[in-house]
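Standup notes
- HV: blocked on the assembly model, inputs below
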Amino acid sequence: GENVEQHPSTLSVQEGDSAVIKCTYSDSASNYFPWYKQELGKRPQLIIDIRSNVGEKKDQRIAVTLNKTAKHFSLHITETQPEDSAVYFCAASNYVDMRFGAGTRLTVKP
Amino acid sequence: NAGVMQNPRHLVRRRGQEARLRCSPMKGHSHVYWYRQLPEEGLKFMVYLQKENIIDESGMPKERFSAEFPKEGPSILRIQQVVRGDSAAYFCASSPTGGSGEQYFGPGTRLTVT
């Protein structure tokens, strides 16, 4: 089955700096890669996703890149703000189900 | 369009009791997923269901846990004879297409076993 690894587990940046979170996956059949943001005590919220026929996708300050050959994908947050502080999860999905990375706790210091 | 609904939001059970967690998917979604999240940990896949069918239960413990998604009504995750290690947040997510479709999460049920 699919195995998703996520790094780093914690990340602390200064407000205004960029943050990068990386994930690798094992199942070459995976074709959908979403990212979720989870604030303390809240539900995971989908913030951006990418499909395997696309190499990069951007939405304002958030971008995701995918390298299918190397089986890794990354989340980039630019101009970070304190409200970006949360746990971020990557996931990989094949035609059956989805598996999540262990999460990255991002702290943005004002 | 109401989002994914879960109830109860908080559930306290004594060891040995049964816990029943309910999930109503978004309107038009026929695919439901259940995940368990321990404090400070990630989302662990448990089971994937479509109406009246279990598609993948590879993440479900073999004993005491069961799930269903009947033709009418919510999906139910049932935990029999709960133990302290079952204390966690249980999230369900629904999807319109399953597989490589977007999943939208409910608010979760926080189960505490005393």
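- HV (later): unblocked. Chain B touches chain A at residues 33, 35, 41-45, 48, 55-56, 58, 91, 98-108 (CB under 8 Å). The radius of gyration of chain B is 13 Å.
- Next: hand off to the docking folks.
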